[in-house]
Amino acid sequence: MARAGLTTERVVVAAADLADSIGFERVTLSALARGFGVKDASLYSHVKNLDDLRTRVALLAAGEFVDRITDAVAGRAGRDALTGFADAYRSFALEHPGRYAATQMKVAPEIVAASSAYHRTIEITGGMLRAYGLTEPDLTDAVRLLRSAFHGYCALEASGGFGAPREVRASWERSVEALHFLLENWPSATDGREHEHH
Questions:
Q1: pLDDT tens, position by position, 66-98
Q2: pTM above 0.85, yes or no
Q3: How far apart are CA 2 and CA 20, in angstroms?
């Protein structure tokens, strides 16, 4: 019998909180059950298995992540929107390491297709980059560059990977400024092909 008051939502939020404190990869149903003071079996009326729990945490985190980014870019464009987006990304990644790790998890395509959080993330990111005048395939290339730059920076910062004396925040701000410059001066996908013929 599941403990009174235990709901799927409470279980998933508790798993996300646990992920933030011990790491997403270390979350188990046993550890979660201990936190609630119940037996593992009690959780199976709320989640199917560990994969189901991890997917649910990923969806929860994706929603919280895009909410933060949406608030940060609302009413802004160009450099202001990019700065808001970047700072929201970095603060979420550093404040919620477990949730952030969950957003990087590969989720089944049909689950992604049914998730409003993933659709909103694509809309917000695409809208911000279209304001720079980017269209496909440049849009996808730019999304991949930003994701790689932001993710790499946050991962290195979180692991203490920046050893130089310069303040990490200052380098972040300059990096975002450099990305803004690049987005404003993005080389067209046809430019490279034209150069190949010369």
A1: 999 999 999 999 999 999 999 999 999 999 999
A2: yes
A3: 25
Confidence category of residue 27, pLDDT binned at 50, 70, 90: very high
Query: What is the rounded CA–CA span in Å between residue 119 and residue 35?
Result: 33
User: Residue 79, SS3?
Assistant: helix
Q: Which tokens hold the place of 96?
A: 């919620």
Provide the pLDDT for residue 195: 46
Vertex 157 angle, CA 153 and 159, to 5°? 120
What are the distances in angstroms from CA 195 to CA 60, 133, 184?
46, 22, 21
Which pLDDT score, from 0 to 100, does residue 21 have? 97
Half-sphere exposure of 56 (CA within 13 A, CB side): 20
Cα angle 55, 60, 66; round to 5: 120
Amino acid at 5: G
User: How far is Cα of residue 86 from the mean position of the Cα atoms in its chain?
Assistant: 11
CA torsion sign, 163 to 81 to 99 to 145? negative
3-state secondary structure at position 32? helix
